[in-house]
Amino acid sequence: MAALFLSPSQNMAKALLRLIWLVILVTAFGLCQGSALKFWAVSGSISDVKMYNRLAADFTKKTGIQVEVTTLAWGNFATKYFASMAAGLPPDIGVTNLGGPFDYGSVGGLVNLREEFPAETKELESRFNPHLLDMFTLGDKLFGIPSDLSTCVLYYRTDVFEKLGLKPPKTWSEMDALIRRLEAEGYRYYYGFPTGAQWAMNMFTLPFGKPDFALDPSGKPYLNWNDPAYRAGVLECLELLWSHDSPGKDLGNKVVGMFRSNDKSVAVPFFIDLHTVSGQIRLTAPEIEGKWDIAPWPKADQGSPSNVMGGTAYVIFRKSKLKREAMQWLMYLNSLEIQDRIIFDRENRGEESALSVSPLKDVWGPENAKFWQEPSLMKDHRIREVITQAFPAFRTVPTIHGSVEASRLESNLLDQMGTFIRDRMDDLGSKYKITRTELVKRLGNGSLEVDRANLHAQIAEKLKAEYAKIAPEGTHDLEHETAHYQERYGDIVARLPDYERQRNVLDVVKLIVGILLLIAFGAVASVKRLRKHFVSYAFVAVPIVLAVVFVFVPAITALYLSFTDYHPVLPLSTAKWVGVDNYHGALGSGDLLATIGRTIKYSIYTLPTGIVLALVFAYLLNSKLRGERIWRFLYFSPLVTSVVSIALIFTQLFLGGKQGWLNAALLSIGAIKDPIPFLTSEHTFLNCVIILAIWHGLAFTILVFLAGLQQIPEALFEAATMDGANPLRRFWNIAVPGLRPQLFFITVLGVIGAFQVFETIYVLAGKSGDAGARFGPNDSALTMVPLIYHTGFETFEMGKSAAYAYILFIIILAISAIQFGVYRRKEGKE
Amino acid sequence: MRKTTSEKWVTYLILGFGALIMALPFYYMVITSLKPTTEIAQPTVSLIVKHPTIEPYQKLIDGGLIVRATWNSFIIALISTVGSMLLCTLAGYAFAKHNFPGKNAIFLTLLATMMIPGSVLLVPSFLLLRDFGWLDTWLPLIVPGLAGAFGVFLARQFIEKIPDSLLESAKLDGATEVRIFRSLILPLTKPLLATLGILTFLGSWNSFVGPLIILLDEKKFTLPLVIAMLQGRFTGQDNVQMAGALVSIFPVLVIFFLFQKQIVSSLASSGLKES
């Protein structure tokens, strides 16, 4: 730090800095735990940490290798893994999502297991079903092995089914007929898990042997979006999700509440969800024990049996210095004994108990039959039977370059289709002036057969048209990335250590800034005229050095980066100069324009509403009130509360079914007749962000206006009252004009703030909980900062992200300049 | 302002309605955080909690992650706050009361940093910090903010109002600059120090994007990160998520209630910083 070079008169700052360093060092030291094997696991549960810690202790006893376990929550784990690789601080071995091995492996972040550990890998590979490893393979390289799988099953109330003479379906068409029957009886069914999740479509398209993307024998990528069989699978899923009266996504264990209920208006006697929900039903709804059962996912009518939903995978990182130990740990975890222990542990966790689906064949085979006789495992014997039945059909699809980009197109299409289907359902509802429940009932009992057929045809046609629209771009993404990969990364990934030694732009910038700072210090120390003021320079040194190092240096670096193509997992020296391509691309594609449009919409809705409300409340709060302290506390408390926590609360208030408070309130006052899927519809998502912004921002605006009101002489108000002006008049003629500077100030801040909104969208979109979440359905709240974050830290196109950031910077400067100009002119006139 | 009874009545009615809307999310948070799983797993809305339980809080603290994160956030905010109070005042004092060549240029350079929005620096800061080896440490959450331009600006504005005569008489008595700062400026700037302290503490305690990008190891996570993560760790367990929100909100609310006046006036002066 600069301050350390300075004179004794700087004692205090020096001492303080030393203290801070000391505290940080001590804490950092406390966090350091030596050179244990670092193991990261994506997991939804804290009990997994405990389990892995127990396994690690056992492993240490056997091998002497220490293992340090860290868990990552579902949600932004992919960003964390990428960032750790980019930072050069990856763990030795990790558990990721199923897509992880390909994603991290293709940019050189992972060990190719087949090359590094041929013998062990061969043994491991023989223990999986054929095609279960397809997703982790890139050419002849294998970047990971599955760790844990999950699958969808059917849950049904046997008592209700018996009463209605229904049987669990064996095919998709039987399932459709079953759902219609239930709906005709006034029931509904629930299916929400894969909403908007493009990767979940594999479950519907694999039975036809149609993965979303694939390579033809010559190695050329193609997509199946225009294939009727592929679309038929997607159509099935879309209709299951949207053309019913399903209460929406993320209901958590409220679905268990609906499953156990006997009240027809809320009861859901049949639903589709992950196999792990069975544990929750057993524990939270004991009174329906014996009245419910599970059935396997039905077979597509004309398709082969096939089943995969999701899961996790093990990977070993290239930068690890303990690769051999990591492999030992991997082999240990994959032994039959430990797999059994993991299953046993996860089955006995109270409320969280669930059957863990091991991907290893031998776990489900006859050699392990004795283990399953364990009394505590017997309670889930049905789900085990169902899984054992489905297990041979488990497979994954290969991933190819460009699939990340193409998937995003498809995910947004699925969201658009959801909105489309909901809108058509609403049209039908208003045509017959009936609620959704009633509509679904009539569609189910056959009284609206023509409408039903029309609806189906409309959806199919729209799906076909939309896929045709995005297919060229998707194909381009695949072809470009496949070709680009070899050209761009082929050599780099092969010669990474060379590139790591090369100089890069930061070295240059640091050198220049270092020289400048040295000159400055040198001048102060040697030029007599300056040395006189030594103390003054010392006092201002810290802020100016911090500003140079942490603002100007990154700002200059970003300018350079914005003209390059750079993936942060690779060394900075691999950044490739691309000229104005990033700016050209940003301005040329519709993305930026759409993003700015959303941002403007956000500010147009947020600002005026917020200002009007704040004016009213500030005006009223400015009067002499009883319990002023309490009133102010109530209105100002959002000022100090973290927006992340507030967004978490609003996420629940906005819940889409009748269980959401906002929906319940609107339903009870008769403002709506069907619950609104607030956070899962692209019509409403941005509005939710806006409502939250108004709520959270109101306090600050009131505060500013209140301060302004207190400067308006009371005599003015009193004179007006004498003249017989009513309160509204006094508000409008005295208070509002008197607040002109504050109104200006709030508008400037509000517009700039609108261009900077991030946290609320991040949390409301569920990005910290759901790996597939985008910035709202169909990216409907992808505003400026989310766009920068997305390109920089989700798709890791740092050059593009820097270009967006500079464009944002220029926009903000321009807006501020215009606003100041307008304000000055107005002030000048008066 | 004097008001008629009916005006008063309308005032309280409107304010009461507004306060209800402002308080409702907090009410939801409190009661949901006390609900047992069986009450969460209900198909209908319940405005009250029938069998309050601390079980969600037990689940929340299980594993110690949230306790550690609270402590982490506290330490980071504390160091930032103390550092910022001293260093901003020190620089503000020099800018306000000293004359030295290049003073205005340096001050303007400093102010220029306020023009650059933090989001512009997301990507390059990440790369710079990686280069420093500061990723996955707390240093980037503390050091760059130790003497922010806005704090220095506030300090300069405040200290300018201190009469020069006071300083001159101290100088005549032969006091060194450090002495003047310690025994004259610091005692005179208590309201300023409070404002700087409150703004830095709140900013640090509630910050999200920086830690999101910088921290990798859960043990080093700050509270807002862990709160956001609850969505993934306790999916569908609304009660545990709300217990977490409460843990992050409650301490600041209590402090706010106690020092309302000072905090409100500090935040009112923070206007410029919001940008």
3D architecture notes:
Chain A is an alpha+beta fold and 830 residues long. In chain A, 59% of the residues lie in helices and 8% in strands. Chain A has 36 helices and 15 strands. Chain B is mainly alpha-helical and 275 residues long. Helices cover 71% and strands 0% of the residues of chain B. Chain B is built from 15 helices and no strands. In chain B, helix 4 (65-97) crosses helix 8. Classes of the chains: A alpha+beta (830), B mainly alpha (275).
- Please tell me the overall pLDDT of chain B: 89
Overall geometric form of chain B: globular
Mean pLDDT of chain A: 87
Q: Choose one word for the global shape of chain A.
A: globular
Q: Rg of chain B to the nearest angstrom? A: 24 Å
Helix/strand order of chain B: HHHHHHHHHHHHHHH
> How widely separated are the two ends of chain B?
34 Å
Topology:
The complex is a heterodimer of chains A (830) and B (275).
Chain A: H1 11-31, E1 37-42, H2 46-63, E2 67-72, H3 77-86, E3 93-97, H4 100-105, H5 113-116, H6 118-125, E4 137-138, E5 141-142, E6 145-150, E7 152-157, H7 158-164, H8 172-184, E8 189-191, H9 202-205, E9 213-215, E10 221-223, H10 228-242, H11 254-260, E11 270-274, H12 277-284, E12 292-296, E13 310-316, H13 323-333, H14 336-347, H15 361-364, H16 375-378, H17 381-390, H18 403-432, H19 436-445, H20 449-494, H21 496-501, H22 505-526, H23 528-531, H24 534-561, E14 564-565, E15 576-577, H25 581-588, H26 590-621, H27 628-636, H28 643-653, H29 661-668, H30 685-709, H31 714-722, H32 727-738, H33 740-754, H34 759-764, H35 784-794, H36 798-829
Chain B: H1 5-33, H2 37-40, H3 55-61, H4 65-97, H5 103-112, H6 122-132, H7 139-142, H8 149-160, H9 164-172, H10 177-188, H11 190-206, H12 209-214, H13 223-233, H14 238-258, H15 260-268
